[in-house]
Amino acid sequence: MNRNCGLALLLVILLSGCATQFNNVFKSADNSYKYEYAKECFAMGKFSQAVSLLSELVTLQKGRTTAQESLYMLGMAQYGNRDFEAASATFRKYFSSYPKGDFAEQASFYVGQSLFQSMPDPRLDQTATVGAINAYQNFMDFYPDSPLRETAQQRLFILQDNLVMKEYLSAELYYHLGGYFGNINANTESNYESCIITAQNALKAYPYTSMREKFSILIMKSKYELANNSSEEKRVERFREAEDECYGFLNEFPESSECKTAEKYIARCKKITGD
């Protein structure tokens, strides 16, 4: 018991001493000393302390030989501190200030990498995802032979999959809403039609997506349900469209688990159209 208390007391004393040292450095007028201490904090993984010191020093370092290093180190400290939005902005500032600087290639890469780390859930706004895609593409344009290019390309695939998933979830939601009229898109007459448009647009934007079959299933099912719920004057025409969609699905995905569904739809469509 006494030993544990002694260890706890020692830890408190050490932490207090570290805090006191940092406060003394932070208040110091010796910027060179501050900078060296900031570098030491960064090397030891004390990113919060490094950020606190470097945020002030980057302005004071302008025009000096350490200006580039201090700005890049601030970005890396923010990245290490998981403040990815601030890190992305700092790396972008570095690249615009020093496009041929010592750390320009890394800074360009980490603009995208920072945004990649804050990639939102597919159900949420994808501004950060689009920003990361643009940043990685800019990086690969500037540095086509960079050893980081392969990593950037892999990240791009992940980011694009996130955008595709958002479109799929939107299309799927429209399909499940079905005949509910409260969520119909202003440009469509039913949720099924909204599902079809959303899925078709996604396939045009991402023709090589691995989710192509899933989108096609939603389109096929929605076209059938749209026909099934249509008025008499549109009914036959839409069942023909649904039938064509089913045949197209069978041709493209002959091994799909939904082939039986497509065949069932075709049989029902033929009864309506008389073909």
Question: Helices, strands, pairings?
Answer:
Layout lengths: L1 H26 L3 H13 L3 H14 L6 H14 L3 H14 L6 H14 L9 H16 L6 H29 L13 H15 L6 H17 L3 H21 L6 H15 L2
Mean pLDDT: 87
Q: Report the span from N to C terminus.
A: 88 Å
What is the radius of gyration? 29 Å
The number of helical runs is 12
Share in β-strands: under 5%
Main β sheet profile: none
Give me the strand/helix succession: HHHHHHHHHHHH
Oligomer category: single chain
How would you briefly describe this protein structure?
With 275 residues, this protein is mainly α. It has helices spanning 2-27, 31-43, 47-60, 67-80, 84-97, 104-117, 127-142, 149-177, 191-205, 212-228, 232-252, 259-273. It has 12 helices and no strands.
Report on this structure.
The structure is a single chain. The protein has 275 residues and is an all-alpha fold. The chain contains 12 helices and no strands. Helix 8 (149-177) packs antiparallel against helix 9.
Features:
275 residues; mainly alpha; 12 helices
